[in-house]
């Protein structure tokens, strides 16, 4: 009988709504590794529970291969999860398969990819690319209204209107990523899934894209899932940060608090590998390898060998860290005393059925 975590993603207090825009419940994704006949399975997502609220930026951080993009692809419905549900404004989208519902879903949830070079069709001018997105949105518009909308989109992403006449190859990486964001905005999304949107950009233009995301949150109330392996940028831009490790969400909290008081050994590892927290940069790979081995060595875990608590046998549930109800961690190290442990942090998997 496994305890399953329930959502303890407390919401920051600002904002008009306390209902989540997107909720992931028990989202799991298995891939068959090594071809069709192989029995080896990669558990890319293990029972992921996540709420994203209106008008907040949530950073999803973790090393390459931890499952970040798989979450985004499932939420964008580019991939069907093996198990679990995805709720958009409370509606279970995997069960409401009807075409129309899924079309409106696709416009509400927009994805911005890492590679601004690959994501824009090179044979079309920017104007065409954006206009098509505006038309796909479905509202009938006249030519003049569409033109006004295109200009508004260019203004929103801080690009000169003349660039509407350019081809993607005539733009810089940063400008292209802004066009990709403008195209997403053309569909008037409630949620943007930004999968490493700045990692292929020059350091000098990254900050501009991060500031643009903040502006979309503040001025339009858009919710953003910001996927990155760069903790410094997560701290800069995200209200909350969620740490992902090997297909699981292991820690979450308000970004500043989480980075100041990381609870999970893996979060501590990621943070210790950021050479300078005030700079937006990447990890030193050698140091990361060394620290990673240290964290993953079960001998370092005080619960290793304890038949009741061993991580590999008993999934940890979410525990609140300290007095901060917004900050949680999934690690046996934070298990409260027995009487407190049942304090609504867990529910019985069996009782749920
Ligand atoms: P991240 O975005 O954090 O780098 P991914 O979500 O891309 O991680 O991948 C998570 C895990 O799932 C990795 O082990 C990856 O190899 C595996 N994976 C992702 N997509 C596929 C796929 N289509 N087929 C098989 N394995 C996959
Ligand atoms: Mg990825």
Descriptive account of the structure:
The strands form three sheets. An eight-stranded mixed sheet has the order 7-8-9-4-10-11-13-12, sandwiched between helices. The chain has a four-stranded antiparallel sheet with strand order 3-2-5-6, covered by helices on one side. It has a single domain, classed as 3-Layer(aba) Sandwich (Rossmann fold). 33% of the residues lie in helices and 24% in strands. The protein is globular and about 65 Å long. The protein starts with a strand and ends with a helix. α4 packs across α5 and α9 runs antiparallel to α10. The structure holds adenosine-5'-diphosphate and magnesium ion (MG). Magnesium ion binds next to α1. Adenosine-5'-diphosphate binds next to β3 and α1.
Total helical segments: 12
Q: Main β-sheet, in a few words?
A: 8 strands, mixed
Separation of the first and last Cα atoms: 12 Å
- Number of structurally distinct domains: 1
User: How much β-strand is present in the residues?
Assistant: 15-25%
Q: How would you spell out the order of helices and strands? A: EEEEHEEHEHHHEHEHEEHHHEEHEH
Mean pLDDT: 81
Task: Name the strands of the widest sheet in spatial order.
Answer: 7-8-9-4-10-11-13-12
CATH architecture descriptor name: 3-Layer(aba) Sandwich
Task: Decide which structural class fits the backbone.
Answer: alpha/beta
CATH secondary-structure class: Alpha Beta
């Amino acid at each position: 009988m496994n305890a399953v975590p329930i959502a303890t993603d407390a919401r920051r207090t600002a904002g008009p709504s306390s209902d989540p825009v997107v909720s992931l419940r028990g989202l799991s994704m298995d891939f068959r590794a090594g071809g069709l006949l192989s029995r080896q399975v990669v558990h890319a997502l293990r029972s992921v529970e996540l709420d994203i609220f209106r008008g907040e930026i949530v950073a999803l951080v973790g090393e390459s291969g931890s499952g970040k993009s798989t979450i985004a692809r499932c939420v964008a419905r580019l991939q069907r999860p093996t198990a679990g549900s995805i709720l958009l404004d409370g509606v279970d989208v995997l069960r409401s398969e009807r075409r129309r519902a899924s079309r409106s879903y696709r416009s509400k949830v927009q994805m911005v990819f890492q590679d601004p070079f690959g994501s824009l069709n090179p044979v079309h001018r920017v104007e065409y690319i954006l206009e098509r997105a505006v038309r796909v949105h479905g509202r009938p518009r006249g030519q003049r209204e569409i033109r006004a909308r295109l200009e508004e989109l260019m203004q929103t992403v801080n690009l000169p209107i003349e660039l509407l006449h350019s081809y993607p190859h005539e733009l810089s990486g940063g400008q292209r990523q802004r066009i990709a964001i403008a195209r997403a905005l053309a569909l008037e999304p409630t949620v943007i899934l930004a999968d490493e949107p700045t990692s292929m950009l020059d350091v000098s233009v990254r900050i501009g894209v991060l500031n643009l995301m903040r502006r979309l949150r503040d001025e339009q109330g858009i919710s953003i899932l910001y996927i990155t392996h760069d903790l410094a940028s997560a701290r800069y831009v995200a209200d909350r940060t969620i740490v992902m490790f090997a297909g699981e969400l292991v820690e979450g909290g308000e970004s500043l608090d989480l980075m100041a008081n990381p609870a999970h050994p893996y979060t501590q590892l990621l943070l210790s590998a950021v050479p300078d927290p005030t700079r937006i940069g990447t990890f030193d790979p050698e140091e990361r390898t060394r620290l990673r081995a240290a964290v993953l060595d079960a001998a370092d875990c005080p619960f290793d060998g304890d038949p009741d608590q061993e991580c590999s046998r008993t999934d940890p549930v979410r525990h609140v860290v300290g007095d901060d109800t917004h900050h949680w961690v999934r690690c046996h190290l934070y298990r409260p005393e027995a009487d407190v442990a049942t304090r609504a942090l867990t529910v019985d998997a069996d009782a749920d059925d």
